[in-house]
Specification:
Blueprint lengths: L4 E12 L6 E12 L3 E5 L6 H8 L7 E6 L2 E2 L5 H11 E5 L10 H5 L1 H5 L6 H10 L15 H13 L5 E5 L7 H18 L2 E5 L3 H4 L4 E6 L2 E7 L3 H16 L1
Parallel strand pairs: 3-8, 3-9, 6-7, 7-8
Antiparallel strand pairs: 1-2, 1-4, 4-5, 9-10
Bound molecules: adenosine-5'-diphosphate (ADP).
C-alpha cells in the first residue's frame, strides 16, 4: 500500500440477514483515504454510511472485500489484535458525545490511555486540551458542560492517543451552529496541522464544506465524489439525488 494512504477499502460489501430477508447495505465500495485528508461521507438515510464507517473502523465485519488500516487487512486480525488496532490507530467521535457521566472531563479525555495502561504524554495532552479550549473545564462532569463543550471533550478523548485516523459520526448533529462550527474547525485542524486522516459522516452540506472531499453513497454504492466541496455545490448534488429518487 502507498505510504500516503492511511486507510483503504476494496470491493467492500456487506449483506445483513440471509435469503428473502437479506439486505445489501454495501455493494462493491472501493476508496482510499490519504494521510492528512478530511473526507465527508454523505448520502440519503439507509444508503450505507454507518455500515461503511463501521467496516472501515473494524467495528463490523464486511461480507466481502477488505478494509485496510495502515496496510493491515482488518479481516486477517484476531479479535484481540483488532481491538488493539482500533484503540491505537482510530479515534471515535459520536453524535451523542458518549462521555461517561461519573467521570470528570479530564478523566474522560485520558480514558483511552487509562484503558491501555498508558501514561498521558504531557506535551501532547496540553496541546489537545488547549486546542479544544478546555483548560478551565477539566474538573467538570459532563452534565456541567454545554453540548459544545461535551463534544470538545469527546474530540480530545478521540485525539489523546494520537490516532492516525479520526472517525466522526454526525459529530455536529446535536449541536447549535456555533458549537458545530467550532468542532468542524477542530476536525479540519486535526487533518491540516496534525496530519490525521479524518472521516466524517454528515447530512449537513455546511459541515461537508469543511472537508477536502465528499464521497456520496446511494443504495450501498459509491456513486460520486467531490473535491474541494462548498456547501452550495454539495447541496446542489444532494438535490439531484432527491430528484433521481422521486423519478
Ligand atoms: P445510513 O447510515 O446511510 O443510514 P446504514 O449503514 O445504517 O445506512 O444502513 C444501510 C442499510 O442496511 C439499510 O437498508 C439498513 O436498514 C440496513 N441495516 C443496517 N444495519 C442493519 C442490521 N444490523 N440488520 C439488518 N439491516 C441493517
Amino acid at each position: 500500500m502507498n505510504e500516503h494512504v492511511a486507510a483503504e477499502v476494496e470491493h467492500l460489501g456487506k449483506v445483513y440477514g440471509t435469503g428473502d430477508a437479506a439486505v445489501v447495505a454495501l455493494a462493491d465500495v472501493s476508496a482510499r483515504f490519504r494521510r492528512g485528508e478530511f473526507t465527508a461521507i454523505m448520502g440519503p438515510s439507509g444508503s450505507g454510511k454507518s455500515t461503511f464507517m463501521h467496516c472501515l473502523a473494524g467495528l463490523d465485519t464486511p461480507t466481502s472485500g477488505q478494509a485496510r488500516i495502515g496496510g493491515t487487512d482488518l479481516g486477517s486480525l484476531t479479535d484481540e489484535k483488532l481491538t488493539q488496532v482500533r484503540r491505537e490507530k482510530i479515534g471515535f467521535v459520536f453524535q451523542s458525545f458518549n462521555l461517561l457521566p461519573t467521570l470528570s472531563a479530564w478523566e474522560n479525555i485520558i480514558l483511552p490511555l487509562s484503558l491501555a495502561g498508558r501514561k498521558p504524554d504531557r506535551a501532547w495532552t496540553k496541546q489537545v486540551v488547549d486546542a479544544m479550549g478546555l483548560q478551565t473545564r477539566l474538573d467538570h462532569r459532563p452534565a456541567e458542560l454545554s453540548g459544545g463543550q461535551q463534544q470538545r471533550v469527546a474530540c480530545a478523548r478521540a485525539l489523546i492517543t494520537r490516532p492516525e485516523i479520526v472517525v466522526a459520526d454526525e459529530p455536529t448533529g446535536n449541536l447549535d451552529s456555533r458549537s458545530g462550527a467550532q468542532i468542524l474547525s477542530l476536525l479540519q485542524a486535526c487533518a491540516r496541522q496534525w496530519g490525521q486522516t479524518v472521516l466524517m459522516v454528515t447530512h449537513d452540506p455546511i459541515a461537508a464544506g469543511y472537508a477536502d472531499r465528499v464521497l456520496f453513497l446511494a443504495d450501498g454504492r459509491l456513486v460520486d465524489e467531490m473535491a474541494r466541496p462548498t456547501p452550495d455545490r454539495v447541496l446542489d448534488r444532494m438535490r439531484r439525488f432527491d430528484a433521481q429518487a422521486v423519478r
